């Protein structure tokens, strides 16, 4: 095994460039229900599957992590939230589809946060088409197992359901 001093590339960086991004996901709970959003048929990765609102940090614009999650929730579902502390960290890899990338990957490191809604009327007026969302539902916690989640969210959902109420 090469030493750290040799500067050898890891298995992912040896084969293709990897960009790092940070994301947050909001687990918004009200009256025993969790807000889920559905990916549209146009979503390139998980069409028709469910997840929670949130997204990737915009490095130049999101100076505060609380403001970042507030912005993502406002843009995707039109709610104002009070963000709580993170309860789970995870990562996933995805193809880098930016014009400058050839065959690169994006490594997304994400934090899940339980959020308290300050407003309750969901609206899609602020949504960007690149979010690829076409619906949402306030789902009773005991019914979450019936929803087909995006794969990377499944262990996060299990961690969420283990949290004290």
Describe the structure.
This protein is of the alpha+beta class and 165 residues long. It has one domain: Nucleoside Triphosphate Pyrophosphohydrolase. Helices cover 16% and strands 37% of the residues. The chain is built from three helices and seven strands. Strands 1, 2, 3, 4, 5, 6 and 7 form a seven-stranded mixed sheet that branches. The radius of gyration is 17 Å and the shape is globular. The chain starts with 10 loop residues before the first helix and ends with a helix. The mean pLDDT is 89.
- Shape assignment: globular
Helix percentage: 10-25%
Structural class: alpha+beta
Radius of gyration: 17 Å
CATH top level assignment:
Alpha Beta
Output the CATH homologous superfamily: Nucleoside Triphosphate Pyrophosphohydrolase
Cofactor: Mg(2+)
Protein name: Nudix hydrolase domain-containing protein
InterPro entries: NUDIX_hydrolase-like_dom_sf (IPR015797), NUDIX_hydrolase_dom (IPR000086)
Domain Nudix hydrolase: 17-162
């Amino acid at each position: 095994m090469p030493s750290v001093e040799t500067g050898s590339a890891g298995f992912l960086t040896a084969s293709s460039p990897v960009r790092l991004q940070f994301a947050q996901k909001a687990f918004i709970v009200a009256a025993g229900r969790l807000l889920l959003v559905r990916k549209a048929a146009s979503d390139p990765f998980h069409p028709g599957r469910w997840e929670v609102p949130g997204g990737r940090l915009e490095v130049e614009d999101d100076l505060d992590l609380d403001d970042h999650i507030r912005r993502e929730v406002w843009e995707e579902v039109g709610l104002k939230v009070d963000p709580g502390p993170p309860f789970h960290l995870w990562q996933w890899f995805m193809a880098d589809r930016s014009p400058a990338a050839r065959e690169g990957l994006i490594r997304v490191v994400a934090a899940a946060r339980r959020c308290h809604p300050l407003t309750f009327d969901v609206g899609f007026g602020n949504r960007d088409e690149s979010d690829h969302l076409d619906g949402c539902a306030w789902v009773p916690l005991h019914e979450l197992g019936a929803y087909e989640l995006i794969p990377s969210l499944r262990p996060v959902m299990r961690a969420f359901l283990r949290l004290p109420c």
